[in-house]
Write a structure and sequence with these properties.
The protein is α/β, with parallel strands linked by helices. It has eleven helices and 14 strands.
């Protein structure tokens, strides 16, 4: 039986770090300790719990069954302590050195990161942001363990997490201005018919952190008629690929300005059928609801979400001349 009165709580930080990083040396580096000190702490825990806890495997230091059972409780306890300390401590953005880990897709990076870093440079220059990309299936676990602070995207998590709507957008089709399937409205505005959309070859983005495709859902019985010629995990390559051929891409209209910037041969037209609104939220663990630092970063992200895009494209829609070029 472990005596909690004499138990060294610092051992739990070591346990958490090894469990997260699967490496004694990496854990030591992140904790600011020497590798022998972390190895010594691990040996102490092995004696206390009468279990190896971590054994060497193909993926590094693999947790034993007992370690896996301990991990959730350790993470919950440490994160509760961290949240309590953060809440009770005054937060001064101008001097804070906090680090925030945010999960988002590369479309999220395009929309949020330029403005976020500008805002932090002005009011919180010493705050560090780490952006990670993970499969959607991992978001709840990552928020629960504190490996990420915020997850941004088009998805729903369970009620043990808090959320805030950031923005809603529709979808647009990005393609070459002289694409053979483009038609023109009576006022000369480029348009794409439903039949042409189905006839075209498409490039689609299947990001690891994205939820189901609302376009597939909107097409209903015609979904099988949409020809996907290329599937990629990131949006950053879309403009270059679309510009070089007859492929077209369906994207959230919030990202249109960024995708067209510097690509004079491209245009964006309205999606020729109705699809569900693209609703983007930021999610976090409820324990961080009142954390002043956490609230600070969330407020910036919410403000950015309501006013996204670089200055020259802000507020532009697919019907504006700068976007739907004739």
């Amino acid at each position: 039986m472990i005596n909690l009165r004499t138990f060294d709580l610092n051992l739990l930080r070591v346990f958490e770090a090894i469990h997260r990083d699967r490496s004694v040396s990496v854990a030591a580096d992140k904790l600011g300790l020497s590798q022998p000190a972390v190895s010594s702490a691990l040996n102490r825990m092995r004696r206390l719990f009468d279990d190896p806890l971590f054994v060497r495997g193909v993926g590094g230091m693999e947790p034993t069954r007992k370690a896996m059972l301990l991990a959730e409780s350790v993470a919950l306890g440490l994160n509760t302590i961290r949240a309590g300390v953060a809440t009770s401590t005054s937060f001064d953005p101008s001097s804070s050195t906090r680090q925030f880990r945010i999960a988002m897709t590369d479309v999220g990076e395009i929309i949020f990161l330029p403005r976020l870093m500008q805002a932090l440079a002005r009011s919180a220059p010493s705050i560090t942001v780490h952006v990670i990309e993970h499969g959607l299936v991992n978001y709840e676990d990552l928020l629960e363990t504190g490996e990420i602070d915020i997850a941004i995207g088009r998805f729903q998590l369970n009620p043990s997490f808090s959320s805030q709507h950031i923005h809603s957008s529709n979808f647009a089709v990005v393609l070459r201005s002289d694409h053979p399937l483009i038609d023109h409205a009576s006022d000369g505005t480029p348009v794409l018919s439903y039949e042409s959309y189905l006839q075209a070859s498409h490039i689609t983005v299947q990001a690891p952190g994205a939820s189901g495709d609302p376009i597939v859902h909107a097409l209903g019985a015609d979904r099988s008629k949409k020809r996907i010629t290329l599937s990629v995990p990131h949006s950053v390559v879309l403009a270059e690929i679309v510009e070089c051929g007859d492929l077209m891409a369906t994207v959230p209209d919030k990202s249109v300005g960024w995708l067209l910037h510097g690509h004079q041969a491209l245009c964006a037209v309205p999606l020729p059928f109705k699809a569900d609104t693209n609703i983007v939220c930021q999610w976090w663990h409820k324990r961080n609801d009142k954390d002043p630092g956490h609230l600070f970063i969330r407020e910036i992200l919410a403000e950015i979400g309501g006013d996204s895009g670089p200055p020259s494209f802000r507020g532009a829609s697919v019907s504006d001349p700068q976007i739907a070029r004739s």
